[in-house]
Each structure stands twice: as C-alpha cells, then as structure tokens.
Write a structure and sequence with these properties.
alpha+beta, four-stranded antiparallel sheet, single chain, 3 helices, 38% helix
C-alpha cells in the first residue's frame, strides 16, 4: 500500500513538469538530460535547488516565461553556456537550469 501511494504521489508531481518541458538549447557534446532532469525536478517540486552534481558552474532561476527563468539564473551573461533547459511547473512558473563552461 505504501509503495502504491508513493507511486501515485510521484505521478502527480512529475506529470506537469514532463508535459511542459522544453529544451531551449544544447551545444555539441552537452548532455541535455542532466540540465533537463534538474529543471524537471525543480518544476515537479516547485523549489529552486542546485543539484551539486554538475561538475561545473550551474545557475538556476524561475520566472513567468522560459526567457525570464533563464535571465534570472545565477551567473547569467557572465560565462559561456554549456547547456540550458527549462521546465514548467504545476503552478505555471518556469524553472531553468544553465550550466556554464
């Protein structure tokens, strides 16, 4: 029963993020799934958090549009972008992850 409830809870939180996820850009050699997975997690939970596993500088942000979320990311405009991704949360806010070189 506990496992069933956990599965239902995960489905409810994860579905809105995956339904509206958008990969904005990735550069050659970038692993999109890393930034996208982090953006999806933030969208599903509704909380900003650094993953700590990127192995590089990572900026996170949120906003009412994908562009606003990206421009609110830490270090935006200061370093070359390696990959970036956004996901829309159930609350309608967009969450962004940018990884820098």
């Amino acid at each position: 029963m506990r496992g069933f409830l956990l599965m239902i809870a995960l489905a409810l939180f994860a579905a809105p993020a995956h339904a509206d996820r958008v990969v904005v850009r990735n550069s050659p050699g970038a692993i999109v799934s890393g930034a996208q997975a982090d953006a999806d997690t933030m969208a599903a939970t509704g909380r900003l958090r650094h993953s700590g596993r990127a192995g590089c500088r990572q900026g996170i942000g949120c906003g009412s549009t994908p562009e606003a979320a990206l421009s609110n990311c830490c270090y935006w405009g200061r370093y070359a972008v390696r990959e970036k991704a956004v996901a829309r949360g159930a609350n309608g806010r967009w969450f962004a992850v940018v990884r820098y070189r």
